[in-house]
Amino acid sequence: MTRGEGSRRRLSRMPRQGAIVAVLAVAGLASSFMFTLVVPIQAKLPELLSASRDDTAWVVTATLLAAAVITPIAGRLGDMYGKRRIVLVLLAVLVLGSVIAAVSPGIIGVIVGRALQGAVTGVIPLGISILRDVLHESRVDSAIALISATLGVGGALGLPISALVTEHSDWHVLFWMSAGLGAVVFGLVLWIVPVDVLRTAGRFDLLGAAGLAIGLIGVLLAVSRGNEWGWLSPAVLACGLGGLAVLLAWGWLELRIDDPLLDLRVAARRAVLLTNIASVAIGFSLFASNVAYPQMLELPSGTGAGFGLSLLAASLIVMPSGLVMMVLSPLAGRLAHTMGPRLLLLLGSGALIVAYAYTLLFSAEVWQILVANILIGVGIGFGYAAMPMLIMRSVPQTETGASNGLNALFRSLGTSAAAAVIGAVLATMTAGQGDAQVPTSAAFQMSFLLGGAAAVMALVVALFIPTGSDAAEPRPSLPE
Known about the structure:
The chain is mainly alpha-helical. The chain is 76% helix and 2% strand.
């Protein structure tokens, strides 16, 4: 019996498909939870770690950089060496990073641990690719919608949980909690998720991986630290322009080698390219709400722009958006299966436009912000479900891991840009409040306007994404 026949025999005896979906959904929740893990202690980090605020900003930046760099690379590794295997590696890295951060008394260990935690972001696109490999065709769309929803649900649920932990326990418990979560998910994936059958032949492109990492780090550093360093400072210009130059050279190289890290010809197909552009806009629109709404809710009511809620109370107002994403995932799957995923992207973009328009008109009461967050959940739930479906209908099955990883990278670029732009708006449009400068009502209005504009861009781009035979997979899968 050949190795391929043995793999297929094991696949025929795999656990129930519902169990596989459930485990991969839990893995996605664990992954997205890492981005809100330190939010409750972020303002206190300089005191807790005896470091400057500029230095403690790296506790967040390191996670962002690691997630953006590792995700597309992990996707390619999954296509070549097995998606489940790479998921297990990423979960092991999460556990290692969590333990390092938990036992570290100083800032260096916490930054290293947080960078390692960021690597687990690659679990979500890999999990989506696994679904295409192992599920019956009729269940794939609904399962993808559920896994995509975890991108918002993990953060929405994780924020109040983290706030509760930090209110009643030592901050190190956050990292011990994430280590335990990673270990449990590792065991579940090892037990439930079947071994891959489809693999991509060839050698791993180490030079391409290094070039992509260097270029992305440069660009993302410029975007994420521009507010602190100054947008025209030598450091930001060197990182940004240098990163772009490296990425251009990387693209030139990738088009000329036999086994590229990412097949840019596949990425340049109209359906894939437009979906990735829409992903930047959707990611921006999502993170604009993640930055603006909590600040508005927590800002003292005496400023005229805030509601004076505690972090826990504010997180409970934001949390329903994630719950809505989870509840809508079955509907998203059915709509995609019957009417196509482009409709989902159009509906999601439209819901985001309505959410921001509503907020511009009605934001004087807490319940109005709650309604706006529910609309955001509808928009992101449909939009995030649509994008991997559009990608996988347009690429060979042997490249789903790398292509989904690239799509996740474009979402990260959108969220990074939103963090920088909305952060700059709220930091510059301020008024004096005692000894502090706080954002004005006009600053929040501008933030919501920018979030809505990004949603309009996503809607317009979605209108030009081809459907049906125009976006069909152009070539068969490679034989094993």
